[in-house]
From TrEMBL:
Function: Required for the first step of histidine biosynthesis. May allow the feedback regulation of ATP phosphoribosyltransferase activity by histidine.
HAMAP family referenced in this protein's UniProt entry, alphabetically: HisZ
GO biological process, one term: L-histidine biosynthetic process
PANTHER family linked to this entry: HISTIDINE--TRNA LIGASE, HISTIDYL-TRNA SYNTHETASE
Chain ranges of the Class II Histidinyl-tRNA synthetase (HisRS)-like catalytic core domain: 12-322
Protein name: ATP phosphoribosyltransferase regulatory subunit
Location(s), subcellular: Cytoplasm
Binding partners and assembly: Heteromultimer composed of HisG and HisZ subunits.
Family that this chain belongs to: Belongs to the class-II aminoacyl-tRNA synthetase family. HisZ subfamily.
Amino-acid positions noted as binding L-histidine in the UniProt annotation, renumbered to this chain: 83-85, 126, 130, 272
Entry keyword annotation includes Metal-binding: no
Length: 393
């Protein structure tokens, strides 16, 4: 290894430097403050856990994104968290064990074995909220509303919200009773929205069968008209499908009423989180950015794997991505420059200012340095025997 190689970081891993680090931390605080004002309590899960805990109820997708290592104390396999949602579920079900409604929020780095796509790194800063103990649509609406509020705080313009329901695909694929390989191929084609592949896989299904309905449904997406088309395709299929479509209709009506500025639609190929979501799922997008900026949904099954069945819903987002996409008004970051002077009175002035201000104290090596390069827009100067703050220049 050469000297220059020692400074290299792995692909998808990078330092976050000033001033970006300050903007990220500012938004993280604002997002967490917003969640706490809605009654969500902050938790800080550990960076690593035993694999059994991290993967409980989450399926294979998360396992592929998780770095694994051996615990030198016990010999058991551990993982570096790739998603904090299962950790919040464990905390609710096992660590806290509270009755009634529990609201938790969190923010911290997660680590992925590979980027989600070409424009992302492997160390997102995940923030999110989870609501446990309520199976009501009111809980789903609260979580969606809070997610939209955090995006407003982040300064994101023109949000589009996609709604879907896991039970629709789950019911149809179960009724069709395909072999495992065919089911995997259908799932993969649905996730990629590849209609030609679905036509090839499902083209021989009889009209009115679950497979034929699934093939038709893959072509349906858009606004309220898409829900009406889905109702036509699934008419008479099953009570569970009717219930899922009815819920999508009620939630979309509430969103139209409460958030008229938000565009929303339906995506019946949305299978993200299919392995552990159990009901309504949602994802927020901004124009010109292909990946979702926030996502979530209902996942009532995870808690039972921790020994305590609890209905649950929540959302998560990447703080780093929001900073890159948002249009937040930057907070004034100016600081006060204090000279390298040994006057005892200066020490008292600096201490007082630091109660509310950022003060950068010059050192002997700073002679000749322009204070603006240190983020300062004011300076302490001595006038008539008193130290006062004045604008630089």
């Amino acid at each position: 290894m050469t000297v220059s190689d020692r400074w290299l970081l792995p692909d998808g891993v990078e330092d976050i430097l000033p001033p970006l680090a300050g903007r990220i931390e500012s938004l993280r605080r604002d997002v967490m403050d917003t969640c706490q004002r809605w009654g969500y309590q902050l938790v800080i899960p550990p960076l690593i856990e035993y694999l059994e805990s991290l993967f409980t109820g989450t399926g294979n997708d998360l396992e592929l994104q998780t770095f694994k290592l051996t615990d030198q104390l016990t010999g058991r396999m551990m993982g570096v968290r790739a998603d904090m949602t299962p950790q919040a579920a464990r905390i609710d079900a096992h660590t806290l064990g509270q009755e009634g409604i529990t609201r938790l929020c969190y923010a911290g780095h997660v680590l992925h074995t590979r980027p989600r796509h070409m424009l992302t790194g492997r160390t997102p800063i995940q923030a999110g909220c989870e609501l446990f103990g309520s199976a009501s649509e009111s809980a789903d609406m609260e979580v969606i509303s809070l997610m939209l509020e955090t995006l407003r705080v982040a300064g994101l313009p023109r949000i589009h919200l996609d709604l879907a329901h896991v039970a629709i695909y789950e019911s149809l694929i179960g009724e069709a009773d395909f072999d495992r390989d065919t089911e995997r191929a259908i799932f993969d084609a649905m996730a990629r929205k590849s209609v030609p592949e679905l036509d090839e896989l499902l083209g021989q299904c009889a009209a009115g069968s679950a497979g034929a309905r699934l093939r038709e449904l893959a072509r349906v997406s858009g606004g309220p008209e898409a829900l009406n088309e889905a109702r036509r395709i699934l008419q008479g299929a099953s009570d569970s499908l009717d219930a899922a479509l009815d819920q999508l209709g009620r939630v979309s009506d509430m969103l139209s009423r409460d958030y008229p500025e938000i565009s929303f639609g339906f995506d019946f190929c949305e299978l993200r989180g299919y392995n552990y979501h159990t009901g309504l799922v949602f994802a927020a997008y901004v124009p010109g950015h292909g990946d979702s900026v926030a996502k979530g949904g209902r996942y009532d099954a995870i808690g039972s794997d921790f020994g305590r069945a609890r209905p649950a819903t929540g959302f998560s987002l990447d703080i780093r991505a929001l900073v890159a996409l948002g249009e937040r008004v930057a907070r004034k970051a100016g600081a006060v420059w204090a000279p390298a002077d040994d006057d005892p009175a200066l020490e008292g002035v600096i201490s007082g200012l630091r109660m509310t201000e950022t003060v950068v104290r010059a050192l002997p090596e700073d002679e000749g340095v322009n204070p603006t390069t240190k983020g300062c827009d004011r300076e302490l100067v001595k006038q008539n025997g008193q130290w006062v703050v004045q604008k630089l220049g």
